[in-house]
Task: structure prediction
Amino acid sequence: MAMTPELLDKARVAGAELAEAERRVLTTRADYHTAVRRLHLAGAPLREIADALAISHQRVQQIVNLSGGSWWRRAWRTRRTTQDAVCTWCDRPPSEVAKLVAGPNVYICDACVTAAGRVERGAGKTGGPLRLAKPSSRCAFCHKRSSDSRVIVTGNAAHICSECLRLCREIMQITAA
Result:
C-alpha cells in the first residue's frame, strides 16, 4: 500500500504541533513549580499554599523539592563542617603518621603514598585495600579521569592518580629536607 502525500503532510504538521505543545507544557510546568517554590521561600507554609492552590500539601512539598528545595535544606547542605585531618585511605590521624598531604576534602599519609606507588607500578598485593581503579574513576585530588598516561589507584574511600601521587612524593621530600 502506498503512502499518500496528503496524509504524510498532515502527519508531519500534527507531529510538529505535538512537539510544540509538549514544549509549552514543560516550560509552563517549570514556571508553575518555580512560582510555588518562590511562595514557599517567601515564607508561606506548605499547607497554606496547598489550600490556596487546591492541591495536597504533599504535592506542594514535592514541587518545592523538585524545583530546588526549601531554604533550610540549602542552609543545611552548605553548612561548614570541620573534617578531622585523617588519612582518607587508612583512617590514621596525624599523630600516627610521619606526613599527611591535604587535598580538597581528602588526605593521604606517607604510608598510603608508598603503598599506592607499589600498586601503581604493579608490585602491590592484589586483593588488598589499595588496587587499580576502574577506567571511569576520577582522582580525589585533581578530579581527572584515568588515561593511558594516568593510572588511578583506589582505596576504600577515595582514588588518587599517578600525577597526584608524584606530587605527594615531591611534597613529602621537600618537607623532609
User: Anything to note?
Assistant: The longest strand covers residues 100-103. The first helix runs from residue 5 to 41. The CA atoms of residues 51 and 57 lie 8 Å apart. The chain has two domains: 5-77, 94-176.
